[in-house]
Structures are given as structure tokens and as C-alpha cells.
Specification:
Blueprint lengths: L12 H9 L11 H14 L10 H12 L5 E5 L3 H4 L4 H6 L2 E5 L9 H7 L13
Parallel strand pairs: 1-2
Length: 131
């Protein structure tokens, strides 16, 4: 199985049959038993009060940013961050959240000094503080 991406994953015949035969309901009304069970399992497994199913990692990343930032906020991320390089500017386009990319170290980590230096002061002439 290759679960790198929602566009790379190829479901097996058994997976297709499970999807076709799964009991379904309207998730907006909270009556989809399959989604409810998946969300409950994910929340319990990871020690959270609740979880939410998203259809892709891109959608999950955007929702995460929008849950933590307000329109006009800025978020710090590495220049190699997936949400910065490969998600078509969704945070800026759909969330009105400006990315501030920071150069990654050779091992992929971010230097705390560079992160601290990139945080803008609370000034009405600048973007809102980094979230």
C-alpha cells in the first residue's frame, strides 16, 4: 500500500468493496455511521476529544491553518513545507493567511533564531502577528 498522497493511493478491490458496502448517512447532520466511527477512532487513538475527517491532506492543512489564524494573519513555515510549496497558495487564496517562508536547515528543520527574527512586531502598518 502506498499512502503518501490522496492522489497516489490506489485502493485494492477489497477496499473498493468496503467503500461500496459501507453504511452511509449525511455527515452534515452527523448521521453517517462510517465517518462517525472513523472520527471517534482517530480521536481516541491520538488522545484528542474529537477528530474530523477530511478528504485530503491539503484540505486538512488548510483547515488547520484557518483554525489557528485569522484573515490577515501571517504564518511561519519552512520554504520546503508541503503547504507552502505544493498546495497552490490555498492559505493565502482561501484563508487570506499570508505565508512567511523561512529557509530550512539542510536536515529540514527550522532555526529557532530565524523563526524568532521573522515574527513581526505588533504594528498596525504590518500584517497581524504571526500565528
Amino acid at each position: 500500500m502506498d499512502f503518501r498522497s490522496d492522489t497516489v493511493t490506489k485502493p485494492t478491490q477489497a477496499m473498493r468493496e468496503a467503500m461500496a458496502n459501507a453504511p452511509v448517512g449525511d455527515d452534515v447532520y452527523g448521521d453517517d455511521p462510517t465517518v462517525n466511527k472513523l472520527e471517534a477512532w482517530a480521536a481516541e487513538r491520538h488522545g484528542f476529544e474529537a477528530a474530523m475527517f477530511t478528504t485530503s491532506g491539503t484540505q486538512a492543512n488548510l483547515l488547520g491553518l484557518m483554525a489557528h489564524c485569522q484573515r490577515g494573519d501571517e504564518y511561519l513555515c519552512g520554504q520546503q513545507a508541503h503547504n507552502y510549496k505544493y498546495e497552490a497558495g490555498g492559505a493565502a487564496v482561501l484563508g487570506s493567511i499570508q505565508p512567511q517562508p523561512i529557509e530550512n536547515n539542510p536536515d529540514g528543520t527550522l532555526d529557532f533564531g530565524k523563526l524568532k527574527a521573522a515574527i513581526k512586531p505588533d504594528d498596525s502598518h504590518l500584517l497581524a502577528p504571526s500565528c
